[in-house]
Amino acid sequence: MDHTSQITPPGGFISRPVKSISGELTVPGDKSISHRALLLSAICEGHSNLRGFLDSDDCLATMNALRSMGVHITLESTDVRIIGVGPKGLTAPTESLDLGNAGTAMRLLAGMLSAQSFDSVLTGDESLKTRPMKRVTEPLGQMGALIDTVEGLPPLSIQGGQNLRGIDYTLPIASAQVKSALLIAGLWANGRTTVRSPGISRDHTERMLATMGVNLLKGSGQDVSLDGPVVIKARDHVIPGDFSSAAFFIVAGLLAARKGLLIRNVGMNPTRTGLLTILRKMGGSIDVINRREFGTEPVADLLVRKSKLQGIKVEPNLVPLAIDEFPVLFVAAACADGFTTVTGAQELRYKESDRLHVMSEGLRELGIKTKETVDGIVIVGGSLRGGCVDSHGDHRVAMSFAVAGIASQDIVQVKRTDEVSTSFPNFLSLANSSGLAIEAYVTTESLKG
Ligand code: S3P
Questions:
Q1: Rounded CA separation 87/116 (Å)
Q2: What's the whole-number mean pLDDT along residues 64-78?
Q3: Could you tell me if the CB of 176 is within 6 A of ligand 1?
Q4: Largest CB tally within 10 Å, which of 102, 295, 336, 436?
């Protein structure tokens, strides 16, 4: 596929205020589901076809890692064909596996590679090297895995040839990545692997495993178990659009779609749609239409209309259901009347950037009063005046501030936007075709680099 018109050029964005946006768009495939479909299909015996795959840098990092371990994968547009190698068929990579910016790839692969007969090293870019890995290496260690980290951070050096055993593990915080890493490791472990969770996290791994022949046992609350070792069966997967990518257009629509903006093909897994609940409580007009099933996942189209938003207290129990959408929610809060208060969201400090800090700093640059707390933020809705903000190389922060430009009095310049291609390679073209006015610029520094 020719991506030259879609890849975000190195540098930054200039986002200009616009009066109105409208029309319809289709968001690209879900990142979490694309990673999982690749990883799980690779260890089946037999062929799998994926439709609607997200060919973003993060998912391509997972694909390349699997190719380095002998898995034959072809990609054409958003269609992927994988020839699974079976549970014992992965081969030792000749080099470290570089996962770029992809935290999900690193944590899920840690689970998978802990159970292999060969050694491996998982590394990534400067941002990924600052992200906490003990949360996954510690429970995997309890299963018998041998993983070295650099004081809890990547690279992860995994020693192969271990016999894993099932454990009963309670996650200290709800995390889909850790839960998934343990369940994936559990496919090779002897005995029952149980993951207990203090809250809801996305359940794509469980849905997928269940359709691949795994008997998942659901306990009380968020507990889930599987009995290993178990061989999973190849099947085809249809991947819905990514709710987290749709989120930028949902907020953009609430700020400027006087005649409505239709967002098609949006994954509506209830573990992902907390933002809808929050924005509706703020007064947002979002209609969910044409609900349907895409394989194991619910999908719908969303019709969003410009709305007068009101600040609210966000219930902490909604935080895990909207975990990746907070940067753009903060932009909506900046444009709402009154105070928006978020608590129970300390996890936002451990994402691709410290999202509480980076968003708070950026919104202040744009003239909005904010107060950062240990586990949240208070945002006083007001008038965005425009200015220059730094995304700190965080894709979701970059796109959120690009959306903020719509409703600003003057242009918003967003620095360091290259990472947008990790999750949403065609963000710019979709945004501009809906009436946003975002231009990419190239810095001389990035040209040198
Ligand atoms: C993801 C889970 C979430 C989310 C991340 C993707 C996944 O993290 O923030 O972007 O695909 O499993 P948690 O592990 O904190 O739930």
A1: 9
A2: 98
A3: yes
A4: 102
423 lines ligand 1 (CB under 6 A): no
Outline where DSSP puts E strands in 270-325: 285-294, 297-305, 313-314
Least Cα distance to 325 among 293, 347, 303, 301 occurs for 347
pLDDT bucket at 444, cuts 50 / 70 / 90: low
Q: Residue 320 has what DSSP assignment?
A: G
Helix (H), strand (E) at residue 396 = helix 395-404
Question: What confidence tens digit (pLDDT) does each residue in 77-91 have?
Answer: 999 999 999 999 999
Q: State which of 54, 101, 104, 329 you would mutate to test the pocket of ligand 1, scoring each by most atoms of that ligand within 8 A of its C-beta.
A: 104
| CA dihedral sign of residues 195, 196, 202, 207 | positive
Angle at which helices 103-113 and 57-68 pack, to 10 degrees?
20
Q: How far apart are CA 38 and CA 66, in angstroms?
A: 8
> Residue 246 — very low, low, confident or very high, per pLDDT cuts 50/70/90?
very high
For the segment 135-177, what is each residue's pLDDT rounded down to a tens digit?
999 999 999 999 999 999 999 999 999 999 999 999 999 999 9
